[in-house]
Design a protein that fits this description.
Blueprint lengths: L3 E8 L9 E5 L13 E6 L4 E13 L11 E2 L8 H13 L4 H8 L5 H9 L12 H7 L5 H6 L3 E5 L4 E6 L2 E7 H15 L3 E5 L3 H11 L8 E4 L5 H11 L6 E4 L11 E7 L16 H12 L2 E6 L4 H8 L4 E3 L8 E5 L13 H10 L4 E6 L8 E3 L15 E2 L8 E2 L19 E3 L4 H11 L5 E4 L7 E2 L4 E6 L5 E2 L5 E4 L2 H5 L6 H13 L7 E5 L4 H8 L2 H12 L9 E7 L1 H14 L8 E6 L5 E7 L4 H22 L12 E4 L7
Helix pairs in contact: 1-2, 1-9, 3-8, 4-6, 6-7, 10-16, 14-15, 17-18
């Protein structure tokens, strides 16, 4: 009997019970096009319809008793799912108790027919030739062992230089970028010169723009590929197809760029892994850092974590010897001053006299940066009499004001609070309890007359400022890049930032402050206002790794991440209890105090947190994944074949970025 060709297909479906390979017979008329990696359409008997999927592999099978449905169609001849990408998606999904199709939905853009036809018709690009990589070797030389570590495919952690540099621009004068961008660009160009690809992952488009500037004129034309969700769909799909070419390239992009199927990957670099933008919000919520660690093992490429600060996650990996720390040859650090209100000054003074004097002196030479916590005019209002927070009468959201004397508005529902009355003391007056970027700019503008004032926040994005004197009031993370560096930096609202109810708030605040301080001109003062303690000392001494080690030591007795991993289990109370019981049966030695909850919320759903050691990760994820599948099948049966709503099914997220989610 003649063996039949069988295609094993991964369905593009969010249903957890369909997260496996299904066998389909390959009909003769599709035999030539049905190659591993192509998009296909297949019949799904349980749904009575045709669904999309990816052909993962083909095998020859002796005809047996089991009948197989046939492939319905091959959607495209392009093999978009490479073996390496499927292996990465499968490993990442299994680690996070999720579905591989959810990972591939992030990694493979939607098909654009015109872009695909253009790519198929175009010749394969020539292998890029790096004309001169001497500058790259010089930039990497500031970190002894870094170049060798990249060539050897090791896992490395680097504390990036905290200053600005100029890079050439063919269209005009040199452009200023962070020294970190030049460091990553040098690592990528060196890798490309060695005949291998590099992927550079950054949190947002501002960082991506700095990398593009640093690479312009230094990497061969056409070798740098953007992988950006902000691109139009045809451009994004065209960029993805370019990474499928069998020639090395440099991919720069945001968190999903970690999955780009670049040819012969030699370097995977992640910049500022503590930024929350690198935490994937969509299921199964795999952080770019974790996906990078998995990919490094699969591709045996170099992995580089770079940042001005060191996250506790990376420091844990350094501590166990999984990642090598690469210290710089010389450490040039910003001059930090811990400013506090002095005796005789108003206790309510927002800018102490020392910081005020530093700003006045620096404005004679160039721009001064003032970092604040929040945008807007008055982000928080309180009752003028009892000082309790002013809340919306409709939804209980916090009230804010857009300008002096304006009617308060709700930050949640947007309603105007006309005729607001305090429910506690019946007062009708409100008071501004905080100052946002606009109010700070207004106050400083009066204090420094005839001085330019620039606001930089989410509603007023500013990418760069020139070297002329100006007060730049920016929210954290929105600081413009200054020409030549800021002549002084004042970090306000530090105490307010540290009051956030967040396990990682110390790490986050240190990252905000260090990223801002790295924009200072050489020798310029950086004033941190009103903050003392370990975080302030770490900034003043520029010792982020030591701070991360201390944080790990403090969390170890409490068994808090990243000392352990944490999974959140949400859903109907009965489903959550069933999943926890199944977990206890699968792991009899599981400690009861490592299961927190479940707690029933106001909407009737329950939530439990499960803490577990890294060595148990595979078994915990497998148990929780099995519970999700079993619950989905029960819910679907109860719904009589219809897909149940998300609130009626069990949901699991492993490695939750915030325990309060």
């Amino acid at each position: 009997m003649t063996a039949r060709a069988v295609a094993r297909v991964l369905l593009d479906s969010p249903l957890p019970q369909l997260d496996r390979l299904f066998d389909y017979a390959v009909p003769p008329h599709l035999d030539a096009d049905a190659k591993p990696g192509v998009r296909v359409r297949v019949p799904l008997r349980s749904a009575g319809r045709v669904v999309d999927g990816f052909l993962v592999e083909r095998v020859l099978e002796e005809p047996g008793d089991r009948p197989l449905s046939e492939l319905d169609a091959v959607v495209s001849p392009v093999e978009v799912l490479t073996p390496g990408l499927y292996a990465l998606a499968r490993r990442a999904a299994d680690r996070a108790a999720g579905s591989a199709s959810d990972i591939l939905r992030l990694a493979i853009p939607k098909r654009m027919v015109r872009a695909e036809k253009a790519w198929l018709a175009a010749p394969t690009p020539d292998r890029p030739v790096v004309a001169d990589s001497a500058w790259a070797d010089t930039a990497l030389g500031a970190f002894p062992g870094l170049a060798d570590g990249i060539d050897e495919g090791r896992r490395l952690a680097v504390e990036a230089p905290a200053h600005l540099v100029t890079v050439p621009d063919a269209a005009g004068p040199p452009v200023w970028v962070g020294a970190w961008a030049e460091l990553l660009a040098a690592a990528a160009v060196r890798t490309l010169a060695g005949g291998r690809s590099a992927i550079l992952v950054v949190p947002d488009h501002r960082d991506q723009a700095q990398l593009e500037t640093a690479l312009a004129g230094r990497a061969p034309e056409g070798a740098v590929i953007r992988h950006d969700a902000r691109q139009a769909s045809p451009a994004r799909y065209a960029s993805f197809l370019r990474t499928l070419d069998a020639v090395p390239c440099i991919v720069i992009g945001q968190r999903s760029a970690v999955y780009a199927p670049a040819h012969e990957l030699g370097l995977l670099a992640v910049w500022d892994d503590g930024d929350p933008l690198l935490a994937e919000p969509l299921s199964p919520g795999v952080h770019a850092r974790d996906a990078a660690l998995i990919r490094q093992e699969l591709d045996e490429c170099a992995l580089l974590f770079a940042g001005h600060t060191r996250t506790t996650d990376v420091e844990r990996l350094v501590g166990v010897g999984w990642v090598d720390d690469v210290p710089p040859r010389r450490r040039g650090i910003p001059r930090t001053v811990l400013s506090a209100t002095r005796e005789g000054e108003s206790r309510g003074a927002r800018v102490p006299s020392a910081a005020f004097a530093a700003a006045r002196e620096a404005l004679a030479a160039g721009p001064v940066l003032v970092q604040v916590a929040r945008p807007g005019y008055a982000p928080v209002l309180v009752c003028a009499d009892c000082r309790r927070p002013a809340r919306c009468a409709h939804c209980s959201g916090p009230l804010h004001a857009q300008r002096p004397g304006a009617v308060p508005e709700c930050s949640w529902c947007g309603r105007a609070a006309n005729g607001w009355t305090c429910p506690h003391c019946e007062s009708t007056r409100v008071r501004m309890a905080s100052a946002g970027s606009e109010r700070t700019a207004d106050e400083l503008g009066r204090a420094f007359p005839n001085t330019r004032v620039i606001i930089a926040d989410g509603e007023h994005p500013v990418a760069r400022v020139d070297a002329r004197p100006a007060l730049v009031v920016a929210t954290r993370g929105a600081e413009p890049i200054p020409e030549g560096g800021y002549r002084a930096i004042i970090l306000l609202d530090g105490e307010r930032m540290l009051l956030a109810d967040d396990l990682r708030i110390g790490e986050s605040a240190l990252r905000w402050w260090m990223n801002a301080a790295a924009l200072a001109a050489p020798g310029a003062p950086v004033h941190l206002v009103g903050v003392a303690g370990p975080v302030a000392r770490a900034l003043a001494t520029w010792t982020p790794a030591a701070y991360a080690r201390a944080e790990l030591a403090d969390r170890a007795p409490l068994r808090m991440p990243p000392v352990v991993r944490v999974a959140a289990v949400d859903g109907p109370p009965k489903s959550v209890w069933t999943a926890l019981e199944a977990l206890r049966e699968a792991l009899p030695a599981f400690a009861d105090d490592d299961i927190l909850g479940p707690v029933t919320r106001d909407d009737g759903a329950a939530r439990a947190l499960v803490r577990f050691d890294y060595g148990l990760g595979g078994r915990v994820a497998e148990s929780l994944r099995s519970s999700v599948i079993a619950d989905a099948l029960r819910a679907r049966k109860a719904a009589k074949g219809r897909t149940p709503g998300a609130r009626n099914t069990l949901r699991v997220r492993v490695d939750v970025p915030d325990l309060d989610l």
